[in-house]
Amino acid sequence: ETGVTQSPTHLIKTRGQQVTLRCSSQSGHNTVSWYQQALGQGPQFIFQYYREEENGRGNFPPRFSGLQFPNYSSELNVNALELDDSALYLCASSLDFPGTDTQYFGPGTRLTVL
Amino acid sequence: DAKTTQPTSMDCAEGRAANLPCNHSTISGNEYVYWYRQIHSQGPQYIIHGLKNNETNEMASLIITEDRKSSTLILPHATLRDTAVYYCIVRVIYGQNFVFGPGTRLSVLP
User: Fold this and answer.
1) What is the pLDDT of residues A17-43, one digit of tens each?
2) CB distance from B100 to chain A under 8 Å?
C-alpha cells in the first residue's frame, strides 16, 4: 500500500510569484485535504477535494485554489505569493465514507517566500 | 478554534509510560476523539481515535472518561523516537475536517 506523497519537498519563491504543489493520495483514497502549517503552529485547513470538486474550505483567500484529478491526485495553487505564505503545506488523503474517513498525511512541502 | 486543551509540553523517561492528557469539556455526543503526532517537520501521523470506549492499537491506548470530557493517550513504553508534538482533536466521524490546536510537545529523555 502506497502512502501519501507530495512534491516538491522544498520550494523557494519570491513575493508575487505563483506556485503549484502536488499530492498523490494513498491507494484506495478518494478525498484529498490541504493544510497550511506555519512555524510553531498546528496545521490549518485550507480546503478539501472530493470527486474533483471542492468540498469545504477554510478561512483562506481565493488566491489559494486547487484541483483534483480522476486518479484522485491533487494540486494546490497559490497566486500572488506573500511573505506570510511561507509554511509547510500538507496534503492528507482519506476515504469518503462514514466511519472510515481518517485522514492520512503526506510529508509536506516546505515553501519559502522571499 | 480547537475544542481541546492540552499541556504545552511534557517530559517522559525512556522506557516509561507516557500519559498525555486532553480536556474536551464541550464535546458533543457524535464527536470522536482523535490523536495525531508530528515528529519534527514531518507530516502528522495518525495514532488512534475513539468515541467512548477505551481503544488500543499497536501504537498506543486511548482512555476516555465516562463523561467524555477528557481523555488520555498512553504510550506504554516510550522511546526516543516518540519525541514529537501530540495533537488531540475532537471531530464528528464523518464529513468534518480536523482542527488542530498547538498540541503537547513530548520530550522522551534518555
Assistant:
1) 999 999 999 988 889 999 999 998 999
2) yes
Query: Does the pLDDT of residue A3 top 70, yes or no?
Result: yes
Look at the block and give the residue holding cell 495533537: B87
What residue type is assigned to position B33 of the chain? V
Contact residues, chain B, for A101 at CB < 8 Å:
93-95
**Contact (Cβ atoms closer than 8 angstroms) between residue A88 and residue A110:** yes
* B46 reaches A (C-beta below 8 A): yes
Only one residue has cell 493517550, namely B73
Of residues A42, A58, A107, nearest to B43 (C-beta): A107
DSSP class of B95: S
- Contact list in A for residue B36 (CB cut-off 8 A) is 105
Q: Which of B63, B40, B59, B43 is nearest to B51 (CA)?
A: B63
DSSP H or E stretch at residue A55: strand A53-57
